């Protein structure tokens, strides 16, 4: 079979499966669980490269395959899935759809640019930077913004298009974005995890009581 199937790419493949599940959930009306899938894909993306680099004898072809499959996966996980989620969060108007189209295009451009600059020499100061906002950042931005939006739903609905527009613009804006340290990465993961737990807790708490309320009013056969 063509392709690679060793442990260095398993996490990337799992990230894609998580996002596909998120698409199915969003289209079925389970947006909160779709956000959880988005966050899970972001978590796996944060570690797939570290796992791949543990294999010291990777060939140049294996390394190139890893770069390509990671970017292709990111198009789906952090380009397409957020668009589907936002549509089901109410971005239906013409200008909102235009913003989502811009977001998807900006994400694609960013990933293509990353592919051709991945081997660029390090900066003179020796620090590691992304050029522009990483596309995976949407797995942090969208769940946290949604969690905060549960406290002010009207504000969330009005601000969501602008958040997606700004995020897409930052994907293609040329500025140095420092890569998080391991400690910072763990803090980000904890923050997103807390947001997802809060979102799901609100969902479960809000669904139990109305369901019992409905059952009490359904006439017996």
Percentage of residues in helical conformation: over 70%
Average predicted local confidence, pLDDT: 87
Any idea of the CATH class? Mainly Alpha
Q: How many DSSP E strands? A: 2
State the end-to-end distance.
Answer: 57 Å
In terms of DSSP E residues, the strand content is under 5%
Largest sheet: 2 strands, antiparallel
Number of domains: 1
What would your notes on this structure say?
- The structure is a single chain.
- The chain is mainly α.
- It has a single domain (7-119, 127-217), classed as Up-down Bundle (Four Helix Bundle (Hemerythrin (Met), subunit A)).
- The protein has seven helices and two strands, in the order ααααβααβα.
- It has a two-stranded antiparallel sheet with strand order 1-2.
- Helix 1 packs parallel to helix 3 and helix 4 (94-117) packs parallel to helix 6 (153-172).
- The longest helix has 36 residues, at 182-217.
- Residues 208-221 have low confidence and may be disordered.
